[in-house]
Amino acid sequence: MPNLDLPILVVDDAKFSSMVVGRTLRNAGYRDVRIVNDAPAALKLIEQRPVSVLIADWLMPEMDGLQLTDQVRQQDEQNNHYTYVILLTARESVAALSEAFDRGVDDFIYKSDMTKQLIPRIYAADRMADRQNTLLRANALLIENNRDLESSNIIDLETGLCNNRYGRDRLTKMLRHAESRGGASAYVLCGIRNWQELKGKHPPSVMTELAVGIARRLSTLVRPIDVLCRVGDNQFALIAYFPNSDNCTTTAFRRVFDGINHKALKTTAGYISVEAGMALCKADAQNGTPSIQDMERASVHGLMDAYETRRFTETAPEMGTNA
To answer: What is the pTM of this model?
Structure first.
């Protein structure tokens, strides 16, 4: 059954022609038919309320049917909508029709046989417009759902560890906890110095095995109360709290440093050794509460020093430098 509430807009500078089209549509039962006599007026109506089918004369003054189609397609992009465009024409050359299709026109109705062709073409236009707009709405919903999932995702899908979003949230809470209770917050950044070299030697599947192996190894080396996250392709972060700031030193994490550096990881390509650099960024509550940006910046600088010296380095945040 045809959708008699289908929004249709007729644009023709010849009032007699537009009246014939409008009368034919209304006689077929269509109730939502609007008629204008120039393209700019049509664009204003479409901006106010989109239509499913646009019937326009090809040759019009000021803006012809092809130019109108260009404008309508731009509006469609902005509104996530699809308008089925039918041009009324006396042209029958292949070159002219090919140009119109390239410009985004969907169909043609020859003026010499307009009354016979109009209603069957509208039936087809209704089906196509409905299908396209249904797909556009479904795609928009998928995009929105994906954004919601991404905004709430806290897991690194490759390793199963928590991701950087979760790590930053926990670091913020850890800093606030130290601010109220005293003690120190620790942000330990672990980077695999030879990761790029290994990527050049092994396929992605082996690198995934290696990332999973590193994650599992680190998980066995950290304290149960600490937070372990993957914050980059070759970087992992350990977040911890120490009630006594004197205990927050590289010594407390030495077993993690030794455990990842001194024992190779098993993969399908054989045993692979990684060269890990580690930097401890310590925030003592007595010295104030840094921002997470301060902590991250200091830890990255410390990691660069660790790569150069091949030692477990310790650093502290410079507060108020995140402007």
So the answer is: 0.59
